[in-house]
Amino acid sequence: MWCLVLAGDFRKDVDIIWGGDKAKILENGQAITLSLDKVSGSGFQSKAQFLFGKISMELKLVAGNSAGTVTSYYVASKGAMWDEIDFEFLGNLSGDPYTVHTYVITQGKGDREQQFRLWFDPTIDFHTYSILWNPKTIIFYVDGTPIRQFKNMKTMNVSYPVKQAMRVHSSLWNGDDWATRGGLVKTDWSKAPFTAYYRNYKVQDCVGSNVTCGGDGSSSWLKEGIDENNLKRLRWVQSNFMIYDYCNDPKRFR
């Protein structure tokens, strides 16, 4: 197995899979925009698929009254027993904060959501959102700060994605039946089109059949975890900005 560290060119690295010209590749392949109107949203997926990797992308989310909109950024496999690791950014009324909705699906089974507020306005400027997926752990990062960790605990009969290759996906779509205040606030189509912006797409992944990378330093993500400093940052986020944790929901899990 050998490792790749790729700074993305959207022209070469992704396919527009729906929405047609609502998805626009700009700046010589270094940026892409997705738009949503009442007719449809838009989305793209990576041409390559991989088993384990670290994916980073800078996003600037839909500004203004984004209630009802969902900007998703995730990795997923195919089939009825698919695996998925997901960021979803749930829009809100002007001046109200976005909700960052994260979840992990393994073998088609989900119910592992955690939700957060952000400590900044994600519509003013670009911020980096990263997904680390290696054999030991999954970590969600915002600007290098971990917000969630999902460890491989298969020894405790907790399923973990280790066998199915995944692609990177992103889309902008209408989720007003659930996204904002449980669906109470609907999308205001007079504000359309809604647009999200992407740039600096980077993928570190291993190509081959064995979970071993070379010693050039580019494969540090393969053994990456939460060190003491990042554990403090993770606890800070979860203490101050977590608004929902499936582990603490007695109505759903008794």
Automatic annotation (TrEMBL):
It is found in: Secreted, Cell wall; Secreted, Extracellular space, Apoplast. GO terms for molecular function: hydrolase activity, hydrolyzing O-glycosyl compounds; xyloglucan:xyloglucosyl transferase activity. Transmembrane segments: none annotated. The active site is at E84, E88. Pfam families: Glyco_hydro_16 (PF00722), XET_C (PF06955). GO terms for cellular component: apoplast. It is an enzyme of class 2 (transferase). Contains at least one intrachain disulfide bond essential for its enzymatic activity. Residues 1-198 form the GH16 domain. Its EC number is 2.4.1.207. Keywords: Apoplast, Cell wall, Cell wall biogenesis/degradation, Disulfide bond, Glycoprotein, Glycosidase, Hydrolase, Secreted, Signal, Transferase. Catalyzes xyloglucan endohydrolysis (XEH) and/or endotransglycosylation (XET). Cleaves and religates xyloglucan polymers, an essential constituent of the primary cell wall, and thereby participates in cell wall construction of growing tissues. This is Xyloglucan endotransglucosylase/hydrolase. It comes from Arabidopsis thaliana x Arabidopsis arenosa. The lineage of its organism: Eukaryota, Viridiplantae, Streptophyta, Embryophyta, Tracheophyta.
